[in-house]
Amino acid sequence: MGLNATPSAERVHIGIFGKRNAGKSSLINAMTGQELAIVSDIAGTTTDPVTKAMELLPLGPVVMIDTPGLDDTGELGAQRVRKAMQVMNRCDLAVVAIDALEGQTDAHTDLLTRLTAKNIPHVIAMNKCDLLDTVPPDTEQVRYVSATTGAGIYDLKEKIAHLVPSGNNGRRIVADLLQPNDFVVLVVPIDSAAPKGRLILPQQQTIRDILEAGACSIVCRETELASTLEKLGQPPRMVITDSQAFASVSKDTPQDVPLTSFSILMARYKGRLESAVHGVRTLETLQDGDTVLISEGCTHHRQCDDIGTVKLPRWIKEYTGKNLNFAFTSGGEFPDDLTPYQLIVHCGGCMLNEREMKYRIARAQDDGVPMTNYGILISYINGILERAIEPLADSL
Predict the structure, then answer these.
(1) Distance from CA of residue 240 to its chain's centroid?
(2) CA 204 to the chain's CA centroid
(3) Residue 7's closest CA among 49, 61, 55?
(4) pLDDT per position as a tens digit, 131-147
(5) CA distances from 144 to 19, 161, 322, 353, 367 (A)
(6) Cα(218)–Cα(35) distance, integer angstroms
(7) Residue 33 confidence (pLDDT)
(8) Spatial contact of 348 and 263, defined as CB atoms under 8 Å apart
């Protein structure tokens, strides 16, 4: 993803829900003016949630999520419906597509009840209104549309735009901690796991946030940190490191220079810093046979020394001295039942939007399972947690 592209996690997520053959995919195509979703008269053409990042006027950057039909049948169909329900957890708003000839059914009523319970703004799109003898007037919650003729599509998009939650409540990654002309040193290891030719998303976002603060970012590898600090001629306002390099970076960074990590900044940005700091202390009470869930918000090619599946389990075992079990999830997968786990270690969540992260935190709290964060855990086992969160004290 280029530096000028809006990350998916920062886009408005719009879920399209409904029964099979209600015209969900056709609605997406009609709203975007593009053939983005596969359309067919065969019921159940969309068998898995399909996510598409795009521009949707008058909103701007959005993520549209086309879901399987709520009335899918059989064992496989039940799994598809469950997937569709899980999509709600990352939706900022929802469009409920209903065949205008059929009208609202019990399945739709159940869906609307779920959306209301999750406080997800939604609108009902009565599709195929061109087949009605008389088209009823729109209401506050209902828009009569035709994906075939385009009737009502403009009004539907205007309604969606008015449902969008406002802003990000002033959240910043690091800019609120900086003054114009500050120097910020970013430590970015380049190893076999680093994406070839580019920076990972949290690094991109942090650089952009520093620029917006009118400050200056200086990027180096951990092997050049000491010489970089020496050549600066003045202490930087802050050093921000990849969590995996915490130990060496802490040694090379003078004690009077604030130090934190990209992962910890993302925890603050996603609104879970305090719970993550509290959760990491569960390491002290883990027992033989306990299970730790390590969850990543993205999917990527696993390297031989992968942080999530290799390094973290090794470091946790070495720190606790316990014979632990580990489970792993990635991308949109997150267990419905968290009770089998004694601790959850989550990535920074840069690929997950705020609603999805809040859902995961709430699920863990409901099941009484502590959740922490990659960077917080790594700084804790290296004995530098207090130093790593000190720059963010006002957020705790």
Answers:
(1) 21
(2) 16
(3) 61
(4) 999 999 999 999 999 99
(5) 17, 17, 60, 30, 41
(6) 43
(7) 80
(8) yes
